[in-house]
Amino acid sequence: MRMQEPSQTMEATYSHHLLNLLLLSFLLLSPRAFAAGDIADTFSKGRNITDNETLVSADGAFTMGFFSPGVSTKRFLGIWFTVSRDAVCWVANRDRPLNDNSGVLVLSDAGSLLLLDGSGQVTWSSNSSSPSPVEAQLLNSGKLVVRNRGSSTVLWHSFDHPSNVLLSGMKVGKDFWSGAEWYLTSWRSADDPSPGAYRRVLDTNGLPDNIVWQGNVKTFRTGPWNGLWFSGIPEVLTYSSLIEYQMVTTPREITYGYVVKSGSPFTYVVLTDTGIVKRLVWDASSRAWQTYYQGPRDVCDAYGKCGPFGLCNSSAASTSFCSCLKGFSPASPSAWNLRDTSAGCRRKVKLDCGDKNRTTDGFVLLHGVKLPDTHNASVDTSITVEECSARCLANCTCLAYAAADIRGGGGAGSGCIIWTDDIMDLRYVDQGQDMYLRLAQVELPSPSTSPSPPSSRSIPTALVVGASVASIAVILLILLVVLVIRRRRRLTISAAQSPAPAAPSIEQTNPPPTVPSVELSSLKGATGNFSESNIIGRGGFAIVYEGHLSDGTKVAVKRLIRSSLTEVGGEDFMREVKVMSELSHANLVQLLSYCNDGNERILVYEYMKNKSLNIYIFGGDPRFRSLLNWERRLEIIRGVAKGVAYLHGLSKEVIHRDLKPSNILLDDNWRPKIADFGTAKLFVVDQTDPTLVQTAGYTAPEYIMERYMTLKCDVYSFGVILLEIISGQRNSTKPTLLSDAWESWNQGRISNLLDSTVAQPEPVLLFELERCVQIGLLCVQQSPDDRPTMSAVVTMLNNNSQFRLPKRPVLDSRTGSPFSEANRSTQHASGTSGDSYTIYLT
User: Fold this and answer.
1) Would you name the residues annotated as active-site residues?
2) Strand spans (E) along 180-240
3) What CATH class has 520-606?
């Protein structure tokens, strides 16, 4: 049954009004009454959505259909809260409104949602594609999705294309690998949903901060993320029972969103056409939206109200709300007297920072503030506030510092923000943070009247009271020793939880890679003193243990075997640390920390629940092999391709050099992640090859015969892996796999190649697998010039474009020698496995 849209014309009959009123009342009183299917939430090809029809989510919370905003007569396709037609959450055709009610939403044969006008012209498209039949569904979250029919694979969804509203489950921010960015854009006016003058963007420089822009001008910001909320909006404390923030900060992405807690009323965040950000909550008793938060809330929320080094106080109207920070005076006194404070303030006494960073400067506490803009600030979440104070004092360019994260006991927080540029957009706020401003000695208050910063007050106090140079030197030396000792004690295994890269601290003269070093004792505790019962992988050069952090998080601890710790082995170890610490991608295993203690060389990785790929494609147990159905195998192939393409696309191209199924691990969502970078190297055309790497079945012919290493060697290895995933056959034990794959593909009998332990695929899926085999064969071409780049492979795997035909493979990838009739007749001959780990799990 399809629910009719409420009439918008004065000529509508009384009975039509009454019918719609009854239907809407029933929906509001019992929104879940429609979950059984009275109103469809899904449609597929053959059913169109016309202007007088709607799609309603299963729980009745959201409706999709055509609407005209305000007094406009233009028609738009949108999604709104069913309880309030004015609460439009998403608009498809923002830039191309329909002039009449002849619009229709259809699903194309190619797998796209299309919005057609009365003449059949496309005014909006989801631009999704699939060779399989697709369907569209409006979910209970308000998300519109397009997916393969009967599958959970989503081809497109509306949350990836926000309008002016942030719903529960949506996110804003950046994906650094794909380049995707999500942000809100205001409507042009209340009657026009086309993109307006304002946008709300998550600034990912410094600490995450929600910024409202008008063109290229900042108008308002929430304040930086402090670990619990955005520091300038303490209002969140009043509705913590309503929502829960979701901040994701990883090397791959920085995103922010929220989820509504169970049983809570409807709520959403909207960026209005006037640049105001509001959180609205539905009050069922009054049947109206209540404003729980609004920003800007007062004059001090206007960005840069008091200029650089100015401090805004919304309760100080007598001073035009602005004052200069201690040690500063108005940059333009005449303008300041006329209440123009935009020029801000300037320092009265120059800071003292001479040779070798010796200084008599100190800090003064600013309590309860929204921290200033961190766009150009440096952030280090891996150190303490005490270390932050010392780091700031040792840096002549440091103007102020504060804790990056207020979580934890004592109220001091942890981490470090250092400002070396203008202090901008600073204001007092309830539940604000502490910031320490650097001042010259003569501007410092006396120690008896000023609070001490969380770092030992001994440095600035000793300096301020004019202690002797000898005393200062002794105190500084003692402090440095204490800091070094305390830092070593704090860098335990808990530091492995993806800290941000640390800037050099004053006690580090030659800092290690950006992942932290951890104590050997911590790793012993995490692995039961490297207990045999915790072993999850074993190879010729290392043993992998399951480890448990103090908070219960699992990690994989890779301990190099001491007998392999030659000089070259030590270089391999630091190469892996160096390379892995600089890489960040969803399809690469994340290195969390390392230990280089005496004869111990240990790497700590994220734990991969589903172990290595070879278990599922080569294992003797058909139950394991059947876990990887064809859809899952195709996703694994695409994921591995993306990971390798990322390595090759870096400014310093990285060759993995040892790609094979045992080095491809699977997380709990079966996402593939490439591991074991001990042999990876940065690619320079004329460099020599210091490490001999050959794994039978995966090594490119030019490397076997000429030791010629290029990015195309990884492409060859990837092609072998692709064909192994499809066939379930190991190339090293079936020497004719490549040529047999070519024969099957060339004769159009691809089903002969497929892993027999997996159910035969549907015809459409068989077509995708055939394309995959063709791509794999292109990757294993004898000449590197005939192989595609990995970026081209990713493109081929994700669209249906035509590409060139492969030549028949002529070389045995185990030996580099031509295929012969003898080895063609020994299809099941035994061979040496190329896998360095029987169950490699990191």
Assistant:
1) 658
2) 181-182, 184-189, 192-203, 209-214, 217-221
3) alpha beta
